[in-house]
Amino acid sequence: DIQMTQSPSSLSASVGDRVTITCRASQSISSYLNWYQQKPGKAPKLLIYVASSLQSGVPSSFSGSGSGTDFTLTISSLQPEDFATYYCQQSYSTPITFGQGTRLEIK
Amino acid sequence: QVQLQESGPGLVKPSETLSLTCTVSGGSVSSGNYYWSWIRQPPGKGLEWIGYIYYSGSINYNPSLKSRVTISVDTSKNQFSLKLSSVTAADTAVYYCATTHDILTGYYDYWGQGTLVTVSS
Questions:
Q1: Spatial distance between the Cα atoms of B40 and B96, rounded to a whole number of angstroms
Q2: Taking the alpha carbons of B71, A93, B31, A34 in that order, is the dihedral positive or negative?
Q3: Ordered alpha helix ranges (H), A1-107
């Protein structure tokens, strides 16, 4: 199985801050990396697919980059609704695996 | 736009079989456009992929669950289902049905709301 490791596991930030979350794969996954946002009691919501493509309807403050084993999700200016947990997911090979999550909290 | 809705018992006894159904609207389970999947999330923990089924009958399960999992499709009801046998407390989780239309890019753009299944006697 491909292991996905996110860092940090939790993060405190303020509205307006620029935030970066990192996801590292245990082997190369090309660009087959997707990012999700999850709020309490809700299903995950797709933000970024294939490393850097912005899902329709997602604010342009979200961006993704990377390839191979190292990927980043960046939020350029945090809004109150962005405080949530973020997960990366690889689709390069089955079993599909997710990172452990990064909890983004208000400072 | 595809909409998904999970249904099934919220409480299952240890050693019994968990059975859930996902009802699809806005799309057809017999369409070649989607891979129909199950994903679960234990309370307070991360996401675990269970497996998917394609309209052709192609199925792929997570090896960690493969001996206990069955995913099937009911085209007459436009539903797909999950059965997980010999459950233990470790199977307590919110179970989501979700879909992707490209198994290689494999991004899940449609999700059900999730249903909590508790394994307890």
A1: 6
A2: positive
A3: none
| Residue A82 three-state SS | helix
Chain A CB contacts of B104 under 8 Å are 32, 91
- Considering only the beta carbons, identify the residue of A91, A95, A101 that sits closest to B107: A91
**Chain A from 57 to 86: CB within 8 A of any B CB:** none
Does residue A102 belong to the interface with chain B, where contact is any CB pair within 8 Å?
A: no
Ranges of residues in chain A whose predicted pLDDT is under 50: none
Compute the nearest-CA separation of A100 from chain B (Å).
5
CA geometry: angle at A39 spanning B24 and B28, to 5°? 10
Dump pLDDT digits (tens) for B37-80.
Answer: 999 999 999 999 999 999 888 999 999 999 999 999 999 999 99
